[in-house]
Amino acid sequence: MLATPSKGPSIVNVPSSVATLIIGIAITLISLWVGQNNGLLPTAASVEAAQIDNLFNAMMAIATGLFLLVQGALLYSLFAFRKKKDDDTDAAPVHGNVPLEIVWTAIPSAIVLWLAIYSFDVYQSVNSGGFMGSDHMAHAQSKIVNVSNQTQMADMGSGMSNPIDNSLVINVKGLQYAWLFYYDGTDIVSGDLHVPSGRPVELNINAQDVIHAFWVPEFRLKQDAVPGVETHLAFTPNKPGNYPIICAELCGAYHGAMKTRVIVDTPEDYETWYSSRVVATTDSSSEVAATSNADHQMASLTPEPDALTDLQAENPSVDSQQIQALLSSAEPLTAPNL
Ligand SMILES: [Cu+2]
Q1: Which of 213, 256, 277, 313 could disulfide-pair with 248, CB 3.0 to 4.6 Å?
Q2: Long-range interactions of 287-294: CB distance < 8 A, separation 24+
Q3: How many beta carbons lie within 10 A of that of residue 73, not counting itself?
Q4: What residue ranges do the domains of the chain occupy?
């Protein structure tokens, strides 16, 4: 009854006709077009973003091709092999097809292998723009030891050597529910991240309470902020503008409100901002710079009741005092943010 064994390509009609060729070319062209024109990613504002986007677009093209192939075959089969009226006979017994199975195993394997190599290459390339790689890992290890041996934040204000010449080092602290940015080697503390366009930036990321995640979609970068462990990000912003910084790790009831901005300035604007902050810091040095302990530092700041309103209104001059007001105010956040 089931005596007919697989006969290979004769059972499944392996594509050879002109129509199949045209469909194949059409699917390929559509896939390539969708890969380049999907419009799913936001503005690219860092040097590293281009490589991530190329990888994403390649995956998008492959996914589109597979989608069209599988769904197209499904739709075609629904109509082409529809049961004829009054046809109650059994379908032909099909037992497999070794060449076909080899092909549909080998092609996805090759695609997955290529994607794995390509994405690892991008990962290494993006991180080597900063200070990852083996040297960085050693650096990170030593920092972890440092952090465990000392008071976590006491170390953050001290001048650290820059792994890259000319890079701007900023120590980032995530806490429920805000980000604070400590400019290395200065007393500047900010609730917004100001960086100059075209200059490499290195972030040393830490968390005060629970795990957060520092995410800037426009930079295509995300990194966990873990209490007691310093993590790192390196990037070179290259497009002036304001971009959101989002906490990407569910960190508590007001996680959804844990947002701030990165402001990519032109080098001139950055110098202006930097100078103004240096002056401001010097003016209030008795209050802010008296201690290197960030917790004491924050406790000494005076809350302002309308700070959250300012934050929500995207006031460009949100600073650490306002952030502190946000943190110390009893009911600063409203439900719509959740
Ligand atoms: Cu968070």
Answers
A1: 213
A2: 288/187, 288/189, 289/187, 292/154, 292/157, 292/158, 293/151, 293/153, 293/154, 294/153, 294/156, 294/157, 294/173, 294/180, 294/182, 294/189
A3: 11
A4: 16-76+96-128, 160-337
pLDDT at 155 over 70: no
Kindly report, residue by residue over 124-141, the tens digit of the pLDDT: 888 764 444 334 444 444
CATH homologous superfamily for 160-337?
Cupredoxins -  blue copper proteins (2.60.40.420)
Residue with tokens 């290259």: 238
Q: Rounded to the nearest whole angstrom, what is the distance from the C-alpha of residue 258 to the centroid of ligand 1?
A: 6
| Mean pLDDT of all residues in 98-116 | 94
Distance (angstroms) between ligand 1 centre and the Cα of 246 equals 8
Examine the pLDDT at 250 and tell me if it is beyond 90: yes
The tokens describing 145, both together, are: 């030891």
What spacing in Å lies between the alpha carbon of 53 and ligand 1's midpoint?
Answer: 26
